[in-house]
Amino acid sequence: MSRIAILAREVANLIAAGEVIERPAAVVKELVENSIDAGASHIDVAFKGNGLELIRVRDNGYGMTQEEALLALHRHATSKISSAADLSAIHSLGFRGEALTSIAAVARLEILTSPADAVAGTLIKVDGGGSPMVETRGAPTGTLITVRDLFFNTPARKKYLKSPRTEASHIVEAVIRLALSHSEVSFNLTRDSRTVFTTTGRGGLGDVIATIFGREVHGELVPLEARSEIVNISGFIGRPTLTRSNRSLQYFMVNNRYVRNPTLVGGVESGYHRLLMTNRYPVVFLNLEIDPEEIDVNVHPTKLEVRFSQERDIRRALHFSVADTLGRHNLIPGMEPKFSPRTRPPAPTAGIKPVLKPLQGSGPKGKVRESSPGIFPPVATFTPRKGEGEYLPADVAASLEDREPNPTFPDLKPLGQVYNSYIIAQGEAGLFLLDQHAAHERILFEDLRRIKGDKGGQDSQNLLVPLTLELSPNEWEMLGQNLPVLRSLGFRIAEFGPRGLIVHSMPTIIPPGKEKDILFQVLGELEEGGDKRPLDELREAIIIVLSCHSAIKAGKRLGQEEMVALMAQLGHTKNPFTCPHGRPTVIHISAGELEKRFKRRQ
Ligand code: ADP
Ligand code: MG
Hints:
The protein is an alpha+beta fold and 602 residues long. It has three domains: 9-203, Histidine kinase-like ATPase, C-terminal domain (Heat Shock Protein 90); 214-327, Ribosomal Protein S5, domain 2 (2-Layer Sandwich), CATH 3.30.230.10; 365-602, formyl-coa transferase, domain 3, CATH 3.30.1540. Helix content is 33%, strand content 22%. The chain contains 17 helices and 24 strands. Strand 12 (250-254) and strand 13 (257-259) form a beta hairpin. The radius of gyration is 31 Å and the shape is elongated.
C-alpha cells in the first residue's frame, strides 16, 4: 500500500472538472449561468463546430474587478454564498464556485471583464490550469469569456465525445433551456458565425417558445397558471393533439432553473388523464416557483437534478392544474370557436373563461357571407328548462336542477342514432355527432367527482346479496391503505376472514351484475400506482374505472327521451368535450362546412 497524500491542486481541479465539464455544452451552460447570475440582460453565445475549438460568451452584467477575476479562478471561490446556511436556500444559478476553475483546468481560458465604474478592465489568460497571465485592458462593462482547445490536455475525455453534430445540438439545447428559464434575458446564439436563434428578452416565455420552436408548436399550447400554498406554476401546456414520441419537449423550470425530475413528469402526465395514446408524450413548458428552502439543488455537480421536500404536494398541484387547464379549454380537435354558445348564457362559473365566440359575422377567416345564416332554416333548438317533463325525464330534470348549463356547449336536438353508437344531432351551428359511451362516461365521471367526503352512503346501494371475495396479500395490503377513498365513493366493505372481504354496498351507478368485475378493476387501480400516488389522484383513477364500466355501451339502442336526457346531462358537465380518457365526446361539422361540401359556396 502506498502512503496517503493530499492531491496536488492541479490534479484535484482536473478531477472536479471531470464532473462539472463533461462535454462542450457544459462549458456553455456554466458560462451563461454566470452571466445570468451577474445580472446580464443580453448574452451572446458563439461556438465553432462541436465546441472544442472555440466557445465564447459575452454578457453585459456586473463584470469583475481584477482582484475578483483572479479570485474567481480558485476552486470554491464564489460570490454567491458564504455560509453553510446559505446552501439551504439557493437563489442563484451557481454557488459551488468550481466552474471557472474547472474550465481553466481543461482548456485555454481568456477572461476580459470590467465592472461599470472602472477606469480599465482586466484580461486574464490561463492555459490548462497553469498560472494566470494578467493584463490591464480597456473593456466594455460586463464579461467576455473565451474558451479554446477544450480538453487539449485530457485526451481521454475527447474520446467520449459524440459526433460534432451531436455535441453541437447539446450546446444548442443548453442555450434553449437557459433562454426558456430566463425569458427576460435576450439571447443570441451563433454557430460558425451563423445565427441559430435570437430572443428579444421582452416577450415572455410564450415569445421565446414561438421563436425557438415555431409558431406551429406555439399555436397548439394553452397557458397554465396555478397557485397553491407551496408552489406557483405558470407556463404553457400542449393540447392533447400536440405530442412527441419522447419527452424532449417537456421543459420544467424550478425557480428559473431548468431541471429534470420524475415527480414533475409524473404529475403532468397523470394530469393528462390518459388523454394521450401510449408512447406519446405531452409538450410542456412550466416554471414552478417554490420556496428555495423546500428544494435541494445540491444533489449533483451539474445541478440538473433537484429534490423537493414536499414531493407529493407538488405532484398533486401539477396533476390538478394540468387537468383543470385542459378541462377549461374546448378540446374538440380542430374546431374551437366555431359554434355558437347557448343563447342565454348563464353566469360563467368562476375561473372559466368563455372561449367561444358567436358564429355570426366572423369565422376565423372573417368571411362568412351575409346571407349564409339564411341558407338554413332556423333550427328549433332544445333547451332543457326546469319542469319541462315533456322533454326530460323527471329524475334527470331533478338531478340537473342544482347545476348550471355549460355555456360552451351548444343547444342540440337529437335526430337519431347511427350504428346504435353515435347520436346524430342538429344545432344552430351545424351537425353534431356524439359518441354515446364517451358522453355518458363524462357525465358519470363528473357525477362521481361531486360526491364529497364520507357522504358516499347517499349515492350507494345495498347489494341484495353481499359480495364476498378473497384477495392476494398485495391486494389486501393496498385495500387496507386506501379504504377511506373507497368509502368516500360509496363502497361499504368489511373484513371477512384473514384475507377475505365482504362488500355490502357499492356506488349506485354500477349496473347490476358488474359488481365483481368492477371491484377487481378498482383493486388493480389501487395496485398500479403503489403507495406513491396521492389519495385524490387515486380517487380520480377509481372514478374513471367506475364511469367507464358503468356507462352505456356502444351498440345499445337509445330512445328519443334517453338521447335528449344524455345531451342535457352532457351540457351540464364542466368539460363536455372529452371523456375522462381524453377521447372526444362530440364531433362537429359546421354549417359552413356542409355548404362547402355541397358546393353551395366556395
Ligand atoms: P459559481 O458560479 O458557483 O459562484 P464559478 O466558478 O462559476 O462559481 O464563478 C466564480 C465566481 O466568478 C462567481 O461567483 C462570480 O462572482 C464570478 N463570475 C463568474 N463569471 C462571471 C460573469 N460573467 N460576470 C461577473 N462575475 C462572474
Ligand atoms: Mg457558476
